Amino acid sequence: METLREFFSFSDPSIIAVTVGAVLLSASSAVVGTFTFLKKKALVGDAVAHSVLPGICLAFILTGTKNPLWLIIGAFITGWISLVIIDNVTLKTKIKEDTAIALILSVFFGIGILLLTNIQHSGNAAQTGLDSFLFGKAAALVGKDLIVFGMVAVILLATVALFFKELKLIAFDPNYAKALGVPVKAMDLLLTSLTVLAVVTGIQAVGVVLMAAMLITPAAAARFWTNDVRVMTFLAAIMSGFSGLSGAFVSYAAPAMPTGPWIVMIISAIALTSFFIAPTRGIISRSIQQRKLQRMIMDENLLKELYHLGEKDEDPYKARSLDEIIEERFFPKDRLKSALRRLKREGYLAKQNGDWKYTEAGKLKGQRVVKLHRLWELYLSKYMKIDPDHVHEDAETIEHIITPELEKRLEKMLEYPEMDPHEERIPY
Amino acid sequence: MDAFYIILTASLFAISCGLLGCFLVLRKMAMVGDAISHAVLPGIVIAFLLTGTRDSFEMIIGAALIGIFSTFLIEFFHNKAGLQTDAAIGVTFTWLFALGVILISVFAGQVDLDQECVLYGEIAYVPIDLWIGDDGTIFGPRALYVAAMTLIVNIAFIRIGFKQLHLTTFDPAFAATIGISVSLWNYLLMGAVSMTTVAAFDSVGAILVVALLVGPAAIAYLLTDRFQTMMMITVFVAIISSTLGYYLAVLVDGSIAGAIVTIIGILFGITFLFSPSNGVLMKKRLQRKEAQRLKAEAPLS
């Protein structure tokens, strides 16, 4: 607690530099990452992160200084070239995108390592610290870095805000964007440049490998909470900014801890939690929905089979034993029993000497499912000209889905028919 | 002799990686290979903490398990949460890699691993790290034995499972109908990739393993349409680039692994432009010839 208060009092100017730097970098790369994520080009950020290394080394070899401006320019150039090559290889050969990305990122990185080791072995004293691009040095950010980072963050955020609509359009539907007169190529170019810029600066905080997380993970997490791009972008920025702040705090509280990996750990924890608990899209809520659907289908199928049994001996309200039901259609026994109990609770079935029979509501519901099934079969054979032998499977699925409105329209369109294509009576 | 040891070790690892890479490239799973090579890091650290040594059997098993686990996670997020594959890969491997780096920092005193080694390894130390028997006999570089064992295991795996791997790669639907479990063979292949990655880790590091996995296979893929031929060319490219890479490293006084990858990159560039069947320039020339022929044959206008 004490450390927390100390941390947020920002009494130490170096804490301010580290914290503000980490938050700015995290948030701005998250914003750019949202769009690469939506374009399904998430791993492109990973490729750029690896490909900037040779550029940094070349810039150093050529200028002999560690002036961040030169290094950033060098990084920008090779990062850019790598993306052009990836696009060309994917477009002009039979090599698929994943192979192209993996190949280019590792080859560029390999060249970078060759140059870096060459520089290190050359004994040039000015080279120390170049490897901070490899692993990041978020904990060692100083005021001077902050100015650069702050400027880059402002450029990134302002550009995204300015071209928000266009970026959104090319992310979802480039063809539609083109039709609207959006310069798709230029926008692609802009997004690529933004990605490279975000990577080039972010890499100094978290390093080559983890840079991909700064772009991808916040967007992936935010995607689970909303369908609105604007909200998603904000959420990603906030989540990422928060993990930047927490990462800075962790490395303040425990100085031996690396800041970058902790930022990534925290944003990943947020993402993993989102994957599970987010409403509607989350894994838990999905599986609940799925179970509900499965139960509904089971219940409706069961009521339908009871109706079929009733049709056979013309006594819909007769009580049926488990074996009788299973003989009509196979259900796993335990699932059948729990479905029967559930339907009794809901008032569709009643129990009589261990056997099961319809209630009024149950018969109506079973009858409706049978009706929908047969109506659909008739519709398929009459309007879609599908052979009556082939319509059952389709009807078996659709009978659970048809809404009351659709039901009315089907009845009207087919003029309340008596018989389905298999000469079975359609009950109303 | 040192040069020979280094080249031999590098070639053996490159062949192992390349053979598995042929399957990865054709299965469109190259980035999964990339992810695995990063994700095994926490496995390596934990196994190191438990056994106290870097080259143990437990470590290989531990890493293989983590590799399979990360493959599983990627598929889990994709199938159960509906997350797009590229993002699932990105989230999974960065998370595990960050965990690995944090573990290294936490146990900094106990783990003899540093980040440089993790990223690009150091194959130059191969001839120094000798395997010395209990009675003092020197058997030669330890890494060489690891590399040879890895290659033997991989060749055995591919030979035994060739039909299954081949079918699940080219026609998974057909493979499933004749009773081959597509997901089982997928996980086996990923297990082999993880094992190989870990074995090669010390020598070439995480990212350069990716180049060995994907590079030679991609080059071969541009040169032939036949799978067996592709594997042969891969082996050939692996050996060539290891040899040339070593001498390039000596020439510029830099990392050997980095130089090998640079050579792979150059070879790929050449193939990309000049491959007789798929090269960009060759295709252009063919198109030009075809255009000329059509022009010559065209009636006078």
TrEMBL record, chain A:
Organism the protein comes from: Roseivirga spongicola
Compartments, as annotated in UniProt: Cell membrane
Keywords: Cell membrane, Membrane, Transmembrane, Transmembrane helix, Transport
Name of the protein in its database record: Zinc ABC transporter permease
InterPro entries membership: ABC_BtuC-like, ABC_TroCD, Fe_dep_repressor, Fe_dep_repressor_sf, Iron_dep_repressor, WH-like_DNA-bd_sf
Family: Belongs to the ABC-3 integral membrane protein family.
GO biological process: cellular response to iron ion; response to zinc ion; transmembrane transport
Lipid bilayer topology: Multi-pass membrane protein
Gene Ontology MF term list: DNA-binding transcription factor activity; protein dimerization activity; transition metal ion binding
Chain segments annotated as transmembrane: 15-38, 43-63, 69-89, 101-119, 139-164, 205-225, 232-254, 260-284
GO-annotated cellular components: ATP-binding cassette (ABC) transporter complex
Stretches assigned to the Iron dependent repressor metal binding and dimerisation domain: 359-427
UniProtKB/TrEMBL annotation, chain B:
One Pfam family, short name: ABC-3
Membrane topology field: Multi-pass membrane protein
SUPFAM superfamilies, per database record: ABC transporter involved in vitamin B12 uptake, BtuC
Predominant location category: membrane
Keyword Magnesium part of the UniProt annotation: no
Keywords (A to Z) from UniProt: Cell membrane, Membrane, Transmembrane, Transmembrane helix, Transport
Domain of life: Bacteria
Transmembrane segment boundaries: 6-26, 35-53, 59-77, 89-109, 143-162, 174-198, 204-223, 230-249, 255-275
GO BP: response to zinc ion; transmembrane transport
GO cellular component: ATP-binding cassette (ABC) transporter complex
Location within or outside the cell: Cell membrane
Family assignment from sequence similarity: Belongs to the ABC-3 integral membrane protein family.
Name used for this protein in its record: Iron ABC transporter
Naturally occurring in which organism (per UniProt): Roseivirga spongicola
